[in-house]
Amino acid sequence: MVQSVAHEAIILRVRSYAEADKIVTFLTDQAGKLTGIAKGAKNSKRRFANCLDPLARVCMHYRPRPVPGLVFLERCELRRPATSYSDPQRLAYGQYLVELVDVLTEEAQGVPELFHLLDEALNLLVTGPATAPFLRAFEMQLLQQAGYGPQFTECSRCRMVFGAATDAVLDLEHSAVFCSSCSPRSTQRSLLPVRGATLKLLLDLKQLPLYEAQAQRFDSTALSETALALSGLLAPHLRRPLRSLTVLRQFAAP
Ligand SMILES: [Zn+2]
Prior knowledge:
Elements lengths: L4 E13 L3 E8 L4 E6 L18 E7 L7 E10 L7 H17 L7 H16 L4 H14 L22 E4 L4 E4 L11 E4 L1 H12 L2 H6 L4 H15 L9 H5 L6
Parallel strand pairs: 3-5
Antiparallel strand pairs: 1-2, 1-4, 2-3, 4-5, 6-7, 6-8
Helix pairs in contact: 1-2, 1-3, 2-3, 3-4, 3-6, 4-6
Bound molecules: zinc ion.
């Protein structure tokens, strides 16, 4: 019999299966994203108590499979309950972050940094608000961790290094950035002109710790251009529409 392992995990998605089972997708700190079956989870108050809810942070005990497929979930210890969020808006943003990670990653793909990024973000939402710089920093760093982030420092074609005042053009579909001379003329591509200040902010958000982003203020024009750029950069990699955005539309977007 395969030895069971225990990993720190964040629950991403849960659905009912058969009479009493649950199918659970979770992001671990060591083995990437996994999906497992929790047999009898609906009747077991002891093995999975308050653990199998999206956003919950748990220690997941499971038996891995030698071939890709469902792992067998044995039990959980609760680290941070899904009910930690004091208001519906923070909860809704937490659901957005979790869903974004889920749609951007493949099974068994994932690095410890991705787990720590999501874990820190959810922790910060327990104690503070989902400010615009916090959300943009998370989106930017998630793109980087998932391997889709452009570099923003130089033109993807002529390699000219951008200064603070250089305007540029983002090719959202190909995660590339061009100087105005090299910008493709094709109308087929999703091209977004961005100002030098916005480019600099995108670059800063790559490095900015989330707790600093949460408290920091930025120029509002650069922030809204950044929001547009990031949603455009994320869009080609989303494998399905985000359900959490429907809930988020009830709140004014920061
Ligand atoms: Zn160029």
